[in-house]
Structures are given as structure tokens and as C-alpha cells.
Amino acid sequence: MKYFCTPDERNGTCYYEFQKGGFNENFWLQDSLLIHDDDWYDSGLEDFFFTEVPDLDDYGTTEISHEQWDALMDRSSDYDETVREALAELAVWAEETFRDNEVFSILGL
């Protein structure tokens, strides 16, 4: 993957974690996806998520429902190719997540 990695591939701790389901007080779960904060900013995902999810907590936990995710994907067409490319990576994981979970959580720095 170009933007995201697994916990085994991370180098350091400056990552946003996308975790299946609600946050269970554990970090770096094996089925999570991570994005380094530099990639979060450089890809445009920071601007995208903070614009489209105004209550996103940069240092806490934010839950995204399937309905919200679908709306995010619809609105992604208004953003540049880099944002759409990064979201496409995340979309495969998100759709898999929603098969068994009502939400996924974004864990801030």
C-alpha cells in the first residue's frame, strides 16, 4: 500500500489508527490500518476528514458509521486525485469492516 500500513509495518508511533469497531482501549491491533502523520497531511486526508467530519478528534477517538462512510466516499469526488487514491486504499478495508461492525474508529495521535 502506498499510504496505509499494518501495525507490523509501522516505524515509530506518529500514526493515525483506523480500527475496526469501537475503540476497545487497545492500540496497534493486527486488523487495523495505520497512516503516518506525514502521509495524513501530505495526501490531503487531513483536510478531507476535518472538512467532512468536523467533530474529528485529532488526539482522541472518532467513530465513523457505514452511512457516514458512504457519504464520505460520495463527497470524495470533490477532492483531488491523491485524496481519492488514498481513500480507495482505505475503502477495501472499510467495506470489509462493515461486514461485521457498525462503525470503525479513527484514533488520533
Which key phrases capture this entry?
4 helices, 40% helix, globular, 4 strands, Hypothetical protein yfbM fold, 18% strand, alpha+beta, 109 residues, four-stranded antiparallel β-sheet
Summed up:
The protein is an alpha+beta fold. 40% of the residues lie in helices and 18% in strands.
Report on this structure.
The mean pLDDT is 96. The protein has 109 residues and is α+β, with helices and mostly antiparallel strands. It has one domain (7-107): Hypothetical protein yfbM fold (3-Layer(aba) Sandwich), CATH 3.40.1760. The chain starts with 14 loop residues before the first strand and ends with a strand. It has four helices and four strands, in the order E-E-H-H-E-H-H-E. It is 40% helix and 18% strand. The radius of gyration is 13 Å and the shape is globular. It has a four-stranded antiparallel beta sheet.
Please give the alpha-carbon distance between the first and last residues.
21 Å
User: DSSP strand (E) fraction?
Assistant: 15-25%
Question: How many separate structural domains?
Answer: 1
- At the first level of CATH, the class is Alpha Beta
Low-confidence stretches: none
Assign the CATH topology: Hypothetical protein yfbM fold
Helix/strand/pairing category: alpha+beta
Topology pattern, helix = H, strand = E = EEHHEHHE
Q: Count every helix, treating DSSP H or I runs of 4 or more residues as helices.
A: 4
Number of distinct beta strands: 4
- CATH-derived architecture: 3-Layer(aba) Sandwich
Q: Report helical residue fraction.
A: 40-55%
